[in-house]
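Figure S4 source data
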Amino acid sequence: MKKGIIGKKIGMTQIFDEQGRVIPVTVVEAGPCAVTQKKTVENDGYASVQLGFGDMKAEKVNKPMKGHFDKAGTAPKKTLREFRFDDVDSYNVGDLVKADIFAAGDKIDVTAVSKGKGYAGVIKRWNFHRLKESHGTGPITRMGGSNGCNSDPSRVFPGKKMAGHLGAEQVTVQNLTVVKVDVENNLIAIKGAVPGPNGGIVVIRDSVKAAKA
C-alpha cells in the first residue's frame, strides 16, 4: 500500500465532466490526519503508521491515551487507524497527511461501517423470492421456507441464510475512482456510493486490484 487516509463522509452530489455528462459522487472530508505513532520491524515485528483524524477535547481523553498523544506531540484524536505503507520510513511522528496524496483518476478502496437496518427478514436481508400467494400457502408468503430435513441431518447448518440483524458491519467497496480533489478544503469526490451514513468514518486506501480491473 502506498497511500491511505481517514475521512468523514459528507454526502452525495453530482458533478459534470468535460463532455457535460453527470457523474454521481460521494464527497469525503479526507484529513488532515496526524501521524500519532510509527511502528518498526525492530520494535514491533512489522512496519506501519498510525494516523489520527478529528480533534477532540483534552478532558475527554483518558490518561493512557493522553500520554500516547503527548508523546506524539499532537492534539487528541477521535479516530485512530493503522496503515502498512510501503514507504513507512518517509513518515515521521507529527507529520500531517492531507487529501492531496490522492489525485483525480486514482483507483481506491473505501472501508466503512454500513448503515444499520435492524432486524430484517430473509427477503430484505438476502433477496429471497416470495412463496406462492395461493393454493393453501397461507399468510406466510415472506417466510424463508424450509431450513432443511428433520430426519437427517436433523439440524440447521451454520451459515444458513435466515432472518436477523442487517447492516452495521464493516464493508469495503473496491476499485472506486477519484473524480476530483479539493486540496484547500480537504475534500475528495469519489465516483458512486460508499458505505455508511453521512458523518460516518471512512478509510480510503490504494486499490489492491487496480492492476486487474
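Figure S5 source data
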Amino acid sequence: MTIEEAIEWIHSRLPFGSRPGLDRVNALLDQIDHPEKKVPTIHIAGTNGKGSTVTDLRCLLEELGLRVGTFTSPYIERFNERIAINGEPIVDEKFIQYAEKYQSLVEELDQTEAVSGITEFETLTAMAFDYFLQEKVDVAIIEVGLGGLLDSTNVAVPMLTAITTIGLDHTDILGDTIEEIAFQKAGIIKEGIPVVTGNIGEAALAVILAEAEKKQASVHQFGKDYQVDYLHPDEHWGEVFNFYNEAGRLQKVKTSLLGRHQAENAGVAIELFYQYCLLNNIPFQQKEVVAGLGNARWPGRMERLSQEPLVILDGAHNEHAMKRLVQTVKKEFKEYEINILFSALTTKDIEAMLSLLKTIPKAHIYLTTFDYPKALELKNYSGLADEKVTIVSMWQFGLAEILEKMDSENLLLVTGSLYFISEVREFLLTIGGSDD
C-alpha cells in the first residue's frame, strides 16, 4: 500500500456510518489480544471542549517527560494526526503497516454476520490502542468520538475520565434532551475511577453525579472541587486566569488558546493533571502547568492564521460552540468589520447557528458549502439570504471576495464544520502561509 491507498481503505469503511455499540470493536480487539487493557488511559467526553482539553493535558503531561499518545477526531492538517505521540502524527510507514494488518482482520470479520460492517472509527480505535501499546506510551489520552456509553472508545480501561461540557448535539443519536445526552456522556464513568467535570449545567450534572455514585467514582467538580477565575485576555494571544483546588492556588496562569471558555477547558486539563500526579506520586508544580499550557497549540480552534490581514479559524461546529465563539468575537474584536465564511453539516441546526452569527455587530456572513458527505445544500437555505447573509455557490468565490476588500479594519472569520475549516485552512496556507 501507499499512504493514499491506506487512507482510502480506512475511508472505505465510512459507508457503514456511525453505529453505536461495542460488539464490533470488541470482536476486532479479540483478534489482537486487547491492547486497550494494557495501555494506561485517560478518557475524555463532552459536547465541546474535548479537543482543547486533550491538547492542554498532553502538553502538561509532556512536561513530566512522558510519552503521551492521543487519539482525536477529526483531523485538521493530516489524517495521520488522529493517532499521535507527543503531538507527532503516526508516520506514513507505520500507518501503512497497521492498515495492511487491519484490512485482513476486518475483512475476515465481515464474513461473520454478528460483527460484520466494522466502521472507520472502530477500526481507527483499535489501531490507536495497538500502536500506543507497541510504542510503549506512558499514557494515552483518548477522545470520545460520539456520546460515550456506546462509543467504540468506551472499551478503554482508564485511570481517569473527564466530561468537559454538555449541550444539545447529535440529538438524532444521543437523545432529544440534555438529560439523555448527559446519560450517554456519563457512560464513560467506570467503577471506582475518578471523573473530572467541566462547567456543566445543573440538569446534566445531576445525571453525571448519579451515575458516578452508582459506580462509586469520585467526582472532581468545576466550581466546587476546583475553580477557574477568569481574569482577562493575554496581551498577545490567549487568556489569563487563576486556578484553585485542594493543592492550592495557581495565579495568573495563561492558556495560549483564545476565548474565555478556553480557561475553563484548561481548568479541566489542570485538574486531570493534578489527579494524574496524585495517582502516580508525582509532585504537582506550577512551573509545569505554566510551561505546558504555554506550549499548547490547537489548529482550527480560534487559530490566528495571519495577522495582516487578520484571519481567524474556529471550528464552532454546533450551536453550543457557536454561542461561545460569538461571545468571544463580540468581546475581543468589536473594533473590526467582520467577514464570516460559514458552512456546516446538515446534521446541525444551521439556522440557529446563523442566527447567532447575525448578532455580531458589523458582521457580514457568506453562507457556502464544501465537498463533504452531509455538507449543507445551498438550495435548502436560499431563503436565508438578507442584508447580513450572502449565499455563495463555492467557498472559494466567497473567500476571494472577502480577501479582495480586506484592510486593517477587517477580520476574516472562517467557522462551522471542522471538515470545512480544514479545507479552507489548507488552501489559505498554500496561497499565503501563516504568521505563527
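The radius of gyration is 21 Å. The longest helix spans residues 260-279.
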